[in-house]
Amino acid sequence: xxxxxxxxxxxxxxxxxxxxxxxxxxxxxxxxxxxxxxxxxxxxxxxxxxxxxxxxxxxxxxxxxxxxxxxxxxxxxxxxxxxxxxxxxxxxxxxxxxxxxxxxxxxxxxxxxxxxxxxxxxxxxxxxxxxxxxxxxxxxxxxxxxxxxxxxxxxxxxxxxxxxxxxxxxxxxxxxxxxxxxxxxxxxxxxxxxxxxxxxxxxxxxxxxxxxxxxxxxxxxxxxxxxxxxxxxxxxxxxxxxxxxxxxxxxxxxxxxxxxxxxxxxxxxxxxxxxxxxxxxxxxxxxxxxxxxxxxxxxxxxxxxxxxxxxxxxxxxxxxxxxxxxxxxxxxxxxxxxxxxxxxxxxxxxxxxxxxxxxxxxxxxxxxxxxxxxxxxxxxxxxxxxxxxxxxxxxxxxxxxxxxxxxxxxxxxxxxxxxxxxxxxxxxxxxxxxxxxxxxxxxxxxxxxxxxxxxxxxxxxxxxxxxxxxxxxxxxxxxxxxxxxxxxxxxxxxxxxxxxxxxxxxxxxxxxxxxxxxxxxxxxxxxxxxxxxxxxxxxxxxxxxxxxxxxxxxxxxxxxxxxxxxxxxxxxxxxxxxxxxxxxxxxxxxxxxxxxxxxxxxxxxxxxxxxxxxxxxxxxxxxxxxxxxxxxxxxxxxxxxxxxxxxxxxxxxxxxxxxxxxxxxxxxxxxxxxxxxxxxxxxxxxxxxxxxxxxxxxxxxxxxxxxxxxxxxxxxxxxxxxxxxx
DNA sequence: AATATTCCCGTTTTT
DNA sequence: CGGGAATATT
Length: 726
Known about the structure:
Elements: H1 5-11, H2 17-24, E1 30-34, H3 40-54, E2 61-65, H4 68-80, E3 88-91, H5 92-102, H6 104-107, E4 114-115, H7 118-131, H8 141-153, H9 158-164, H10 167-187, E5 189-190, H11 192-205, H12 207-216, E6 219-222, H13 230-239, E7 246-250, H14 265-268, H15 270-273, E8 278-282, E9 284-285, H16 290-300, E10 312-313, E11 321-328, H17 329-345, E12 353-357, H18 363-372, E13 377-379, H19 382-386, H20 389-402, H21 407-413, H22 423-436, H23 440-444, H24 457-470, H25 478-488, H26 491-497, H27 505-522, H28 528-536, E14 551-555, E15 564-569, H29 589-603, E16 606-620, E17 623-626, H30 631-635, E18 641-645, E19 674-677, E20 681-691, E21 694-701, E22 706-710, E23 717-718, H31 721-724
Parallel strand pairs: 1-7, 1-8, 2-3, 2-6, 4-5, 6-7, 9-10, 11-16, 11-18, 12-14, 12-15, 13-14, 15-16
Antiparallel strand pairs: 16-17, 19-20, 19-23, 20-21, 21-22
Helix pairs in contact: 2-3, 3-4, 5-11, 7-8, 7-10, 9-10, 11-13, 16-29, 17-18, 20-21, 20-27, 25-27
The chain binds a DNA duplex through α5, α11 and α22.
């Protein structure tokens, strides 16, 4: 079409040949295999703008990102390229939620359905387990939740699941799944996985709607395609079934969500799915120094069966990757804090620094050390904020207001603040609702017929009155609605006096109000339902703020897609990174490869300086244990690393007990533990297991010998690193 | 019915 | 270690 020539030209400036090819590819499927730091975001942004200026209009483009933060940033960047408004940029979940609200009648759900958060989902799963007359002790809700989630990610509803169930265990899960779905229907609630599954299902069954949407979204761009699950894959393909204008970007080496149903084959088989697909490889890295890239590349090269990519950079080598060995987790945190102070006095801003860890539990030591050193920091944990009691209380009132069927919220707030409505009263009301076939909410708020409650009737009436006081908020925009509810529910009064300890619930409520105000200023037309939806779909990184003058702490998973000049990765230890649980999980190569990719993702976030640290003794869930360094550190090519041991010599060299436990206690052995045998010499534990209840170890020795030993009889000595003399 | 206390459990990562 | 649930106490 060639309209607007000069600005279209501008979109192609400063692009390499492959980048330009990706931006200008018009109709037909396109796969962009983009290594870390290869300018992928720039390509997607420019491509979206380019399409909007040449062959489509903005509202015909659908761009799917992995986080809301990415969606917001991409939306802003595209807008700044002056292509007109109306482009849809969202996460899969947000897109699906919006679609389901608009087409709720077609999908067979209530318009104001509740989106269950993690806690609420667990509650309902637990309720389902109890409904099946099973005990949550024998059937841990967390496990059941995972099974149900897996089924949903795989597009298996309860009926399909029941059909494929094999064995008594599956059948029990199937019963729980069925009960869970019934509860969700009753509560007019959907969980995260439902959002995707329902939309995929709808698109499969409702050809009219599918056609209509495909016609609307003439171009579809999906980022982080390597992390899509079956439901997401289906949605993408159903929306592009006839026009095939699907552009997938991603990197198989950065696939880190297999545990939640992501299927790396989605990206690997893109070319078979779309035989005429154009494939563009972005292999030049603009982000990291040569040493950082070489180290990361050396690590990922150990994964087998991958699509090899030749990562390269023109950037200078820079400083070697620093491999820091510390004595303990607290030392590690302190050394990092000291190092940050040093960086700071060398002129670096705190905004430019990030610390990554595999598990959230590792953030505490870091927080303490940073606080002690007077370093400002922020943690990527938006979800945690919305999990606080006072926040959940307010949101529950709002959710109940818009969706009276939401019994989870009702039960949460009926006695919050305390109204003297106890378990007995609630039980009686539930029984009453069941026998009369009424909805619990209607029983509770029914002014006339509460006589069966006796003395408690007046208390329940007080709750009904509160709900009626709140009702006008339904018509307000988010901020005033929120303020109205906080004031009229009694929560404001309750939390104003409850400011004990270092928690400050009242302040958190105010923060929530400003979050609502913020949302409202960005989306002036947003309703309270929109805002609730947005809060339910928030991710940890969404809460990060730029220009705060603070170091950023986050999990490795949260770090995906980000970059920082200076990065520290902590806890490079066997069992932590790569993570595995001590009991189960046989060494599964798929798992370790995903852990390796996770490590790769973390390393490739770093632009200038990367430090990877481990602690010889790590305290986790209250116990200090001797650790073994991560095999990932061993994979890093020598020429690009610098090894630095900050362990106090002899600090733990004696045979003395550590925190009341003998260091040679077999309880402390993990996979990877070094051992010495009188004839075979030095070896490493490959597996741990039991023979008739007695612990055994499968050991591989330096001399090539391999054998299984009973730990209590074998002459195996545990070896600490200082004894090996590395 | 509400609060205080103990104990027991898990134990990655998250839209 | 820390949260949640069961138990004890008022």
